Amino acid sequence: EGQVQLAAEQYIPFDINEVNLDFHILNPLEQADDGQPAMSVLLVAAKKEKVNELAELVRAAGLTPVVLDVDAFAIENMYGINYWVNPEEITALVNIGASVLSVNILKGETPLFTRDVSIGGNRYTDLIQRELSVPYEEAEAVKKGERRDGVDPAAVAGVIDGVNAEVASEIARSVDHFKATCTDGEVGKIFLCGGCAKVAGLAQQLKDRMGGTVELANPFNRVDVTTGGFDQKFLAETASQAAVGVGLALRTVGDR
After folding, report:
1. How far is the first Cα of the chain from the last one, in angstroms, to the nearest whole number?
2. Which of 35, 109, 148, 164 has its CA 20 to 30 A from that of 79?
3. What is the pLDDT of residues 88-114, one digit of tens each?
């Protein structure tokens, strides 16, 4: 742990005393290019101020915080429990939230590359509002495919296609960054999740641009939700939004 603490300072863009650090050894000792023993370590850092804010928010809700995780790794947990994982296959897990798009590229279940981009569902809503001069509520509704009086569906589709191109470009750029820094192979499959994963035309545009398989992730693929009185139609419609929540629910106190 002392060695990780010392090495972390060159990778963390903040004062090392202002962050909480954790790490996980990905590979056992192996030989580096210079012949010296080396190992691959996953390093995670979070600003203490942000951690404390989140912990206080949980306590204010009458709950006790016991595990803190990163969205990208929560989605990785969801993926590992719901899909058969080929240890040699390279897969990109893409979570499209309201304001941030995160890309986590794995080989098997080992993370190789992560990248966050400041674009998400709000981009669609903001542009629909601006280009079509409609209020926020209507922009949100038509983004999800609903019809509203006085709103031209063709105009909505044009705005959505434009933002889809931006999102697809950022995902492609992330994959290009990965290929420039890693030599493990090509990304063969992309799983989409998050609130905007189901935006009309996004999956197809991404497939046309990058090739390979693009699939909507199902966090309940191997999770039994047939009991407990759940609304099955609602779960099917909103499943992609539950990816982070399912991944977090798989964590236990003291695990890594």
Report:
1. 14
2. 164
3. 999 999 999 999 999 999 999 888 888
CATH class for the region spanning 1-65: alpha beta
Please determine, looking at this structure, whether the domain spanning 70-250 carries the CATH number 3.40.50.1110. Answer: no
Exposure of 38 in the CB half-sphere (CA atoms within 13 A):
7
Q: What is the DSSP string of 14-63?
A: S-GGGEEEEEEE-S-SEE-TTS-EE--EEEEEEEHHHHHHHHHHHHHTT-
Please provide residue 88's backbone torsions phi and psi, each rounded to the nearest 5 degrees. -100, -5
**How far is 79 from 226, CA to CA, in rounded Å?**
20
What pLDDT does residue 103 have? Answer: 95
Give me the pLDDT at residue 28, please: 65
Give, for 123, the enclosing helix (H) or strand (E): helix 121-132
Dihedral-angle region of residue 194 (phi above 0 means left; psi in -120 to 50 means alpha; beta otherwise): left
pLDDT on residue 31: 59
Higher pLDDT: 84 or 29? It is 84
> What's the pTM value of the predicted model, to 2 decimals?
0.86
**SS percent in the chain: helix, strand, coil, step 5:** 45, 20, 40
Domain ranges of the chain: 1-65, 70-250
Residue 63 phi/psi, 5-degree rounding, is: -115, 165
Mean of per-residue pLDDT scores for the chain: 89
